[in-house]
Amino acid sequence: MASDERWISIAEMNDQLIACRKCPRLVQFREAVVGRDKRFRGQAYWARPVPGYGDINGHILIVGLAPAASGGNRTGRVFTGDKSSDFLVSCLHEVGITNQPTSESRDDGLKYNDAYITAAVKCVPPDNKPTPEEIANCSVYLRSEISMMKNLRVILVLGQIAFQAVLNMLADPAVSKSKYRFSHGAIYSLNGVSIVCSYHPSPRNVNRGKLSRDDFIGVLRKVKELASS
Length: 229
Description:
Elements: H1 10-18, H2 24-32, E1 53-54, E2 60-64, H3 72-75, H4 83-94, E3 115-119, H5 132-148, E4 154-158, H6 160-170, E5 187-190, E6 193-198, H7 203-207, H8 213-228
Parallel strand pairs: 2-3, 2-4, 4-6
Antiparallel strand pairs: 1-3, 5-6
Helix pairs in contact: 4-8
């Protein structure tokens, strides 16, 4: 994939990202959910687009769907302060990708080792269902994050939407995308980068047994193996 020269650094891109108001529906929703969760009433919410986090020079990129209403949309950091992040980060810590097993706030000391984490859509969408137009509007940011990761070897995609977003970035436009199908544990090689698929670590998937801890740990160990090979 050609490098996007629109921004000279991830910090410059994130400054513009945070001010983004391209999607009226998402702007309205990210502000409307402030205070809805009784657990966090009275807290100041971020309620803006949520930038990625971690080591932009790392070998691993993790791509989720979007910030959670009371997670990233509240805390201002992707996969922070909600049930999905509880499961995800504790598993990442078990395999050495993070320095601690919890992700609660922007000042909690969490660090990613050799990895950067982001989302296909940077604002919380109603019912966790962004529209195709909203995904397209956000694609410039994900494309830039990928192009800025000069040492990138592996992308872990969490769910179908993240998979399709990454596929649109890396797949040869002259080749039919029908050969690439999302399934848990599937691995593809695109443009010299390994794409590893996993179900999203949402409470629904975890509580219903669709994604077990042992299964996800196995996927993460494969990600680390590919990153070091």
